[in-house]
């Protein structure tokens, strides 16, 4: 069984789903130094390595990988090369292909109320500091919003500064109200503006958190979602899973 074929919603409960502005940033440590790529193999074997990095190699026919890779390369690297100072191109490609597409797709699949947020506030401490020393503004990396929700002394023993503390209070209030009350607001207060439920369209509303004063914006992901959704994935899971089971049986 695989979620692509057999996804079933087990309970009708509201859900918060979101993503950060630079989800793919955490991959850069293994790909770039401050100016250029350090692993040139990614350029040479782009189509194959991209499919592994974004996991679609598990359900796409091998003969389709080149077509998908060529389309993606043209979209995010118009020159056809992973040139110097293309850090943001790489972050956007990984963020859109591995996170944005999946987040919107899951929101569409759920029949219960869904509330979507876009987290774009950079704390003083970032998980990026655990991976590399790149001093580039490339968006808020995967997991950085957790620094506003939970205290993790093993990663950062310092107290939050005033701005970070205000954003932390905001997130805690939003999550608390969502879990406690029937109606959700964009700032977690009783008098705050309502947080619109997700309805898929070209202009659906999402909560944009880039400071302690959040706001509702119109969907910035529609074109990105449409691009990744139209790629010629073959979803060849039955054959893949059957072969894996055969291999396991042979080994046993």
Explained architecture:
- With 252 residues, the protein is an alpha/beta fold.
- The chain has one domain (3-251): Rossmann fold.
- Helix content is 38%, strand content 8%.
- It contains nine helices and four strands.
- It has helices spanning 3-6, 41-44, 46-53, 65-76, 87-109, 146-149, 162-180, 222-229, 237-251; strands at residues 15-20, 114-119, 205-209, 215-218.
- A four-stranded mixed sheet has the order 1-2-3-4, covered by helices on one side.
- Strand 3 (205-209) and strand 4 form a beta hairpin.
- It starts with a helix and ends with a helix.
- 25% of the residues are buried.
- Residues 238-242 and 248-252 have low confidence and may be disordered.
* Whole-angstrom Rg: 20 Å
CATH homologous superfamily (4th level) name: Alpha/Beta hydrolase fold, catalytic domain
Sketch the topology as an H/E string, one letter per element: HEHHHHEHHEEHH
User: What is the count of DSSP helices, taking H or I runs of 4+ residues?
Assistant: 9
User: Taking strands numbered 1, 2, ... along the chain, how are they ordered across the largest sheet?
Assistant: 1-2-3-4
Q: Describe the global form.
A: globular
Structural class category: alpha/beta
Major sheet, described briefly?
4 strands, mixed
As a percent range, the share of strand residues is 5-15%
Considering DSSP H and I runs of 4 or more, what fraction of the residues is helical?
25-40%
Q: Indicate the CATH topology.
A: Rossmann fold
Assembly annotation? single chain
Instruction: Please report the total strand number as a whole number.
Output: 4
Number of domains: 1
């Amino acid at each position: 069984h695989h979620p692509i074929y057999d996804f079933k919603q087990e309970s009708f409960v509201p859900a918060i789903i979101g993503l950060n502005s630079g989800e793919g940033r955490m991959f850069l440590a293994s790909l770039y130094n401050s100016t250029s790529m350090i692993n040139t193999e990614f350029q040479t074997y782009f189509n194959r390595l991209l499919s592994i990095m974004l996991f679609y190699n598990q359900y796409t026919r091998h003969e389709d990988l080149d077509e998908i890779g060529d389309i993606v390369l043209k979209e995010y690297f118009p020159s056809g090369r992973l040139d110097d100072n293309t850090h943001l191109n790489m972050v956007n490609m990984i963020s859109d292909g591995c996170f944005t597409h999946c987040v919107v797709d899951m929101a569409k699949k759920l029949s219960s109320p869904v509330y979507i947020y876009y987290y774009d506030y950079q704390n003083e401490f970032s998980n990026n500091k655990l991976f590399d020393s790149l001093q580039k503004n490339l968006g808020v990396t995967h997991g950085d919003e957790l620094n506003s929700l939970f205290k993790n002394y093993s990663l950062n023993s310092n107290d939050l500064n005033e701005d970070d503390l205000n954003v932390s209070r905001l997130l805690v209030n939003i999550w608390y109200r969502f879990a406690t009350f029937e109606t959700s607001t964009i700032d977690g207060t009783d008098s705050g503006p309502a947080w619109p439920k997700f309805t898929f369209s070209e202009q659906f509303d999402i909560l944009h958190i880039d400071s302690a004063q959040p706001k509702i914006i119109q969907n910035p992901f529609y074109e990105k979602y449409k691009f990744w959704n139209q790629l010629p994935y073959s979803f060849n899971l039955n054959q893949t899973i059957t072969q894996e089971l055969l291999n396991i049986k042979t080994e046993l």
